[in-house]
Amino acid sequence: MATRKSKNPLLDHEHITLVLQGGGALGAYQAGVYEELAKIPSEPHWVAGVSIGAINAALIAGNPPAKRVARLHEFWDLVTSRTSGLTPLFDQQRAVFHQFGAAMAAVSGVEGFYTPRMPPPMLQPEGTDAAISYYDTSPLRATLERLVDFDLINQQKIRLSVGAVNVRTGNSVYFDNTMQKIGPEHIMASGALPPAFAPVMVEGEPYWDGGVVSNTPLQYVLDMRGPAKMMIAQVDLFSARGELPRNMGDVTSRQKDIMYSSRTRFGTDKAAQIQRNKKAICNLIAKLPPALRNDPDVKRLEAANRTAHVDIVHLIYRQSAFEQESKDYDFSRSTMLEHWAAGKRDMQNTVAHPDWLTKSGAEQGVTVYDLSREVRAVHN
Which of 68, 78, 83 is nearest to 114 (CA)? Predict the structure, then answer.
């Protein structure tokens, strides 16, 4: 793909990348982030996602810029259409609303997404999809075919990468429109979380949700990026940091946060460390006498370690005090609107922050910004 310079004078990055973590119903937060991000005159060059992040990514990459936010609204309005749009008035009602919305999704399914299998898996013929999953995701295929232009995705105007796991090998795999033709099955495979959903067959191989191995595509983006200076907007739905649980509901919720956060803070710290090491190698090579610098092995080593600067703008959904372990399958309208609004607010706060990419470096390295809730910028 050709590198396109950002149209925003505040951004001198040659690549803008959106990285979307998995998290079910929490994905409305990512849609809110994108609605604000879309106001910056810098079209993403690359969108990478896992699970619900893959669905949001497909809605973005599979529509022209003017229609993307509307398509996201259409999807999220559809999947929350079975519940009331009423917003609880009192704090005591909010926890009840959250649990009720999750119960509705578990018992009745989610419109345009999945339906319960009847009879249940234990009464289904062994070896069938119905015997190894609680829900049928056929409605999701119809939704994707209606809301996503896969021909547009395969024109590669925007790079799209979605993560899945091969059930037979246990290996993480990324489907990438720069390497293969992408269809609804690739997006569905990325979101086929067991045991709720059956594996999705892609070219004769069964795939589960990418979050089974890693719930964020950040490392894939860092590994596969080219030499261009890049800004990554990393939108996570589970926070690796949290409070000590106070009850059993908190325990399950905190366990889910830790399990699905995929150690994103560790990932960004490790990426920064790798970049520092690469920079040190290039600095050392620059100090060598010309005779050694021209050695083929030295040139090869220098080429392998010379990469451009990366700015990672990290946005993380922080759950409300009333959400528990069901937060990722509470598809109630009021909760979706809360998540969407939180994403918009966090992105607005990030862009408005005085440190918004002002310290971006031209030389090699990684700078991580987490500015949405508090001043916390880590420079490497």
Answer: 78
pTM: 0.89
Terminal-residue alpha carbon distance, the chain: 28
8 Å CB contact between 225 and 271: no
- C-alpha 14/C-alpha 95 separation (Å) is 44
Q: How many residues does the chain have?
A: 380
- Predicted confidence at residue 274, as pLDDT, reads 82
Least confident of 52-56, 199-203, 233-237: 233-237
Mean of the pLDDT values across residues 31-55? Answer: 92
Give me the mean pLDDT over the 293-305 stretch. 88
- Rg of the chain over all Cα atoms, to the nearest angstrom: 21
Report the alpha-carbon distance of residue 57 to residue 164 in Å, rounded: 14
- At residue 91, φ and ψ (nearest 5 deg) are -55, -35
Tokens 């009464």 belong to residue? 123
| Contact (Cβ atoms closer than 8 angstroms) between residue 364 and residue 130 | no
